[in-house]
Amino acid sequence: MKKNQRSSLDYQHIATYDEIPEPLWFRVSDAPAESIYPQHAHAWGEFIFAFNGVLEVNIEQINYLTPPPYGLWLPPNIKHSGLNRTQVTHCTLYVHEDLCQNLPQHVGILMTTPLVPAILEHLRQHPMQDSDPEFKRLIQVLLDLLHHSEVLGSYLPSSKHPRLTKILDYLYLYPADNTPLKDLAVQMNMTERTLARYSQKELGMSLNEWRQRLKVMNAMSMLSTEKTVENIALDLGYANSSAFISMFKRWMNMTPEQFRKMYRT
């Protein structure tokens, strides 16, 4: 590839929370760039929400991303690992399996109401003791709201094929890069047809579709900031905002500005 890459094996390992003190527990974490949460599982479900940056959670070779204002729900006893390519500030609501009966039974990205990010931001800005009655009320409200959240199927599959994996890792790091697929294939000593075949077999979709999903996920994170739609379009490699808006609307059934207004806290 044209730019230097680091293997995820070189990333800093961060300790996981395997012994959770309460049936319903909340914490906020700052994770440095190029860091990893090793694979683990526990009897608590997790609702993970990133305030800034995008946390990647890998489950059975599928990468789920958590760009604001989306959160990720992991049912109890699911083996998972986390990867932070850039610095990420995120929070986790841990829910013991005894309290998970009315929550989704499968992994999914949750599209919540604007009240959920608002409560999470309040808890972030005003840390409280676990025993504080206000804290207990707020996390119970969070749990109630999660019962009614919509589960989305948007995710980015991973690949076990080494050459395709190198391409995916490169696109993760440089989502604005618009190198044609035939050139990416040549750099990996493949034909474009071979690359297309590997993509369909390993990812269940074309590499172009995977690439667009990645741009959408990055765009959702950027739309939680003050960046203009035009600047976001340029940051994602579009020559103008019209092409970006058209792509985003095709995937999300709303324009970037409609998305921003609907989910801004």
Automatic annotation (TrEMBL):
<feature type="domain" description="HTH araC/xylS-type">
    <location>
        <begin position="165"/>
        <end position="262"/>
    </location>
</feature>
<dbReference type="InterPro" id="IPR003313">
    <property type="entry name" value="AraC-bd"/>
</dbReference>
<dbReference type="GO" id="GO:0003700">
    <property type="term" value="F:DNA-binding transcription factor activity"/>
</dbReference>
<keyword id="KW-0805">Transcription regulation</keyword>
<protein>
    <recommendedName>
        <fullName>HTH araC/xylS-type domain-containing protein</fullName>
    </recommendedName>
</protein>
<keyword id="KW-0804">Transcription</keyword>
<dbReference type="Pfam" id="PF02311">
    <property type="entry name" value="AraC_binding"/>
</dbReference>
<keyword id="KW-0238">DNA-binding</keyword>
<dbReference type="InterPro" id="IPR020449">
    <property type="entry name" value="Tscrpt_reg_AraC-type_HTH"/>
</dbReference>
<keyword id="KW-0010">Activator</keyword>
<dbReference type="InterPro" id="IPR009057">
    <property type="entry name" value="Homeodomain-like_sf"/>
</dbReference>
<dbReference type="Pfam" id="PF12833">
    <property type="entry name" value="HTH_18"/>
</dbReference>
<keyword id="KW-0678">Repressor</keyword>
<dbReference type="InterPro" id="IPR011051">
    <property type="entry name" value="RmlC_Cupin_sf"/>
</dbReference>
<dbReference type="GO" id="GO:0043565">
    <property type="term" value="F:sequence-specific DNA binding"/>
</dbReference>
<dbReference type="InterPro" id="IPR018062">
    <property type="entry name" value="HTH_AraC-typ_CS"/>
</dbReference>
<dbReference type="InterPro" id="IPR018060">
    <property type="entry name" value="HTH_AraC"/>
</dbReference>
